[in-house]
Write a structure and sequence with these properties.
The complex is a heterodimer of chains A (449) and B (446). With 449 residues, chain A is an alpha+beta fold. Chain A contains 14 helices and 14 strands. In chain A, strand 1 and strand 2 form a beta hairpin. Chain B has two domains: 392 residues, 3-Layer(aba) Sandwich (Peroxisomal Thiolase, Chain A, domain 1), CATH 3.40.47; 35 residues, no CATH class. In chain B, the strands form four sheets. Chain B has a ten-stranded mixed sheet with strand order 7-4-8-9-1-10-16-15-11-12, with helices on both faces. The longest helix of chain B is centred in the first third of the chain and has 16 residues. Chain B has 446 residues and is α/β, with parallel strands linked by helices. Chain B is built from 13 helices and 16 strands. The chains are: A alpha+beta (449), B alpha/beta (446). At the A-B interface, helix 4, helix 5, helix 6, strand 6 and helix 7 of A face helix 3, strand 6, helix 4, helix 5 and helix 6 of B.
Chain lengths: 449, 446
């Protein structure tokens, strides 16, 4: 028995704060998922016609008004928030409200529900590119004769066109920093940057921090938007996107685990969950959404160094799942549903399905998968945090959302084809995420009975 | 977490290997020697033409060839400079830990926790794409033109390698590590946090061995631009070697450095089982958030003190107690000590807040005076200097300390190294935005 089991504290999820193309909060997401709708549409923030994919599950401006979300005294700081930070801040606000917590962010001056030094914050983040319009307009005076960039003039005068706090918009730790400032979280705080695994790794890190006694509750999750020039370009370079030309059907383009899957569609989004000790939740008299029972992480061995190709990965992903089941002291036979990353990228789907077969054997084809990419896209560092929110909500509602797009998954032999939402008896749900770079994480969530 | 006294070989975590790539050299002895001589790594920037920038100098890694550290350089052909630093440092640590000849039990229990920074942007091509796609009439970038330029000017491998988890992916590939794998990026605190959480993972029984540390460079056009705009960098026009002046009244900002520090952490039980030599023991870790402002450090040092206190509590050390020899129980603090006005006075305040009367008896120095600020990699490099100090009985100095600042009134080991009995050290790192981390390391005793 590992040493930590000696003092294992039971951890529950008391609030869900997803932010997706359906809007801020669990209700619009759950409604969208259960009604079988998709938030994927043509990108309107810029002309996407030159990109490999022209669609994404974006958050409309009226769905996320950051100035209305933050406390009045914090409005000025919204000027230095990249899109990713706005998503994280909105998600945190939604989660804190859902958990019934009073913080400096919900009621300035009121006594907080949990002592600030006992609240941690772990938020996964991506590589945030500079805003092209802002950078280009600052550089206009620094053009060489052939239209290129003149660093000499930039050093002399050009850089002064950038706001002094320019860098702070793009540091990945600013997601957690803004959130900790708004809600006064003074406990351990971290920023994990492991692509799509970041959200699940952050939730796992919160579990570790709470178990070792350094916090009683944490804001845990991740957020990202790759719906920008560099994000789209890098995903194209990594062969992760499905080809969607202008006017093509974006929803049909992303088909997780389908025999003909050809890539994914990006989304803007993320999620924050309130993770808390069982005792803390009991003490303040709130009903938990689900129990966070187990977690484990592994590195996949990747043939291509950088983890774009996951050909050898099934064993490593399976090892992460096994570790999470062990941590939860749950047999594999107890798993009633699985929320995989389910990107629709053939190599990643194959690795995930291969891992599931190693753990669940013959039963694999009977375990429903919850696939989210056709609804909300793949939201980078936010993806597995959204998955965890949905897993918790499935347990709380005893229902599985609708699935879209996938026609047949006979090759991978998993239960992933399109179908409507349905009621389901769910005791335990598994979340798995393996990001670009090969970091893999698994979470086991259990219903509160 | 369990108090130190109850710990078993399974939840005791030891350092069994260390390595670094720094502006003062590429191996433990060379760098340590330079630190003992009070050398500075600072010089005019060579990575790009910075002559017109507010800051024209940095502390760059010199004449480094990563291929010398790799088993098969061809598989890392596209690695960015941050990943190359990471591989160089990790190879040294792996070798010192004798993991090549006394292998780990199970590679799925060999994890990685890095605090590594993003890669270096392809500046000329990236900026040219942005400039050429500018639609003057519309007053914004033309997305279609940008897409065309981006696809043609930028290189796929180079772009993918900028993702911040790529040093981690390269290290995993090089050493075959398949255990728990993380990269954190809490700005200047990242690699201290990586060491701390790696220790926590080992104690929790999730792994036997962790490769932990950080790698980073921000010495590029937009990196220097960003910190210049924040007025965080020294803009000294004198000899660059005197520009980094932690705790000195004349300090005017930090000097950018680059490089990597990597350590092998493992459970004592695993180290003993495979016949490895423990170099030191990690006994405490604290992490906190200022939750104050994005731009300023909490002025009373509350967050920094919280990280130190948590690390000390975990280590079972009473900051107000003295040992049998009358000395404080902490022998040395490796300061965050960036050389900015704000950091150094608030860090001083935080140390006094934690140790009270004893603070003035604890030597605290900043090797950033010599190495510069390695950003995400700084903490791991400074942790290694603590272990070296324990082994050599020498404290690295804070160089360029000429004029005392009334707000910085502790013992900063000014200008020359000092012989001392060093058993227990704290290593502090505080990130921009308010994430604070402290690790406590002590001499290994069976």
């Amino acid at each position: 028995m590992s040493p930590i089991l000696k003092s294992k504290r039971r951890i529950v999820i008391t609030g869900l704060g997803p932010v997706t193309g359906f809007g801020v909060g669990i209700d619009p997401l759950w409604q969208g998922l259960c009604e079988g709708r998709s938030a994927i549409r043509a990108i309107s923030a810029f002309d996407p016609s030159g990109f490999y994919s022209t669609v994404a599950a974006t958050i409309a401006p009226e769905q996320l008004d950051i100035r209305a979300i933050v406390p009045k005294s914090y409005r000025k700081a919204t000027k230095v928030m990249a899109r990713d930070i706005e998503i994280a801040v909105a998600a945190a606000g939604s989660a804190v409200a859902a958990a019934g917590l009073t913080t400096r962010g919900t009621h300035e001056g009121a006594a907080p529900t949990i002592a600030p030094e006992r609240v941690g914050c772990h938020i996964g983040a991506g590589l945030i590119p500079a805003d092209s319009d802002e950078l280009a307009s600052a550089m206009l005076s620094c053009r060489t004769a052939d239209g290129g960039f003149d660093p000499g003039e930039w050093g002399r005068t050009g850089m002064n066109n950038l706001t002094p706090l320019w860098l702070l918009k793009y540091l990945p730790n600013m997601l957690a920093c803004h959130v900790t400032i708004i809600h006064d979280c003074q406990g351990p705080s971290n920023t994990l940057t492991c692509a799509e695994a970041s959200g699940a790794l952050s939730i796992g890190e919160s579990m570790r921090v709470i178990r070792r006694g350094d916090a009683d509750a944490c804001l845990s999750g991740g957020a990202e938007s790759k719906v920008n020039y560099m994000g789209m370009l890098r995903q194209t370079f990594a062969n992760r996107l499905a080809r969607v030309a202008t006017g093509d059907d974006g929803v049909a383009a992303v088909r997780p685990f389908d025999d003909s899957a050809s890539g994914t569609v990006l989304g803007e989004g993320g999620g924050i969950l309130i993770t808390e000790t069982y005792e803390s939740a009991q003490r303040r008299g709130v009903r938990a959404v689900a129990e966070l029972a187990g977690f484990a992480a592994r590195q996949c061995s990747c043939t291509d160094t950088v983890g774009v190709e996951l050909a050898d990965a099934p064993g490593d992903i399976a090892s992460a799942i096994e570790g999470a089941l062990d941590d939860a002291q749950t047999p594999a036979s107890d798993i009633d549903a699985i929320v995989p990353l389910g990107t629709g990228i053939p190599t990643v789907d194959r690795a995930e399905a291969g891992a599931l077969r190693m753990i669940f054997g013959e039963r694999t084809a009977q375990i429903p998968l919850v696939t989210l990419a056709p609804h909300v896209g793949i939201c980078g560092a936010g993806a597995s945090a959204i998955a965890a929110c949905v897993a918790a909500q499935c347990l709380a509602q005893q229902r599985l959302p609708a699935r879209l797009s996938t026609r047949s998954s006979t090759t991978l032999a998993v239960d992933a084809a399109a179908r409507p939402s349905c009621a389901a008896a769910l005791r335990t749900v598994l979340v798995t995420a393996t990001g670009m770079g090969g970091q893999s994480a698994a979470l086991v969530l259990r219903s509160i009975s | 977490m369990s108090q130190r006294a109850d710990r078993t070989p399974r939840d005791r975590v030891v350092v069994s290997g260390m390595g670094w790539i720094t502006p003062l050299g590429h191996d433990l002895e060379t760098v340590w020697g330079a630190l003992m001589r009070g050398e500075s790594g600072m010089a005019p920037i060579t990575r790009f033409d910075a002559r017109t920038f507010p800051t024209t100098f940095a502390s760059e890694v010199k004449s480094f060839d990563a291929r010398a550290f790799m088993k098969d350089a061809s598989i890392h052909a596209t690695a960015g400079i941050n990943s190359q630093f990471a591989l160089g440092a990790a190879a040294q640590a792996w070798k010192q830990a004798a993991l090549d000849v006394k292998p780990a039990r199970n590679m799925r229990r060999v994890g990685i926790y890095l605090g590594a920074g993003e890669g270096v942007i392809d500046t000329p091509n990236y900026l040219a794409a942005n400039l050429k796609a500018w639609d003057a009439a519309a007053g914004k970038t033309d997305g279609a033109v940008w897409a065309k330029l981006g696809h043609s000017l930028l290189n796929a491998a180079r772009e993918i390698e900028q993702e911040p988890n790529m040093p981690l992916a390269h290290i995993a590939r090089e050493f075959g590590a398949r255990g728990p794998a993380y990269n954190c990026l809490t700005a200047c605190a990242a690699s201290t946090q990586a060491l701390g959480e790696a220790t926590s993972i080992l104690r929790g029984g999730e792994a036997d061995v962790m490769i932990a540390g950080g790698a980073h460079t921000m010495i590029h056009v937009l990196g220097v631009t960003g910190f210049n705009r924040l007025t965080a960098l020294s803009t000294s026009t004198g000899d660059p070697r005197t520009a980094s002046r932690p705790f000195d009244l004349g300090r005017g900002g930090f000097v950018m450095g680059e490089g990597a520090g990597m350590v092998i952490l493992e459970t004592l039980e695993h180290a003993l089982a495979r016949g490895a030599t423990p170099l030191a023991e990690v006994i405490g870790f604290g992490s906190s958030a200022d939750s104050y402002r994005i731009t300023d450090i909490e002025p009373t040092g509350r967050g920094a003190a919280a990280a130190m206190l948590q690390a000390l509590a975990q280590a079972g050390i009473d900051p107000h107690a003295r040992g049998a020899d009358g000395r404080p129980l902490v022998d040395y603090i490796s300061a965050h000590g960036t050389g900015t006005k704000e950091n150094d006075s608030i860090e001083t305040l935080a140390v006094k807040r934690v140790f009270g009367e004893l603070a003035k008896d604890i030597p605290m120095s900043s090797v950033k005076s010599m190495l510069g600020h390695l950003i995400a990699a700084a903490g791991a490099v400074e942790f290694i200097t603590c272990v070296m100090a324990i082994h050599r009985g020498m404290l690295p100095p804070t160089i360029n300390y000429t004029t005392p600042d009334p707000e910085c009134d502790l013992d900063y080991v000014a200008n020359t190294p000092r012989a001392a009995r060093v058993r227990t050290c704290l290593s502090n790192s505080f990130g921009f935005g308010g994430q604070n981390d402290t690790v406590c390391v002590t001499a290994f005793e069976s």
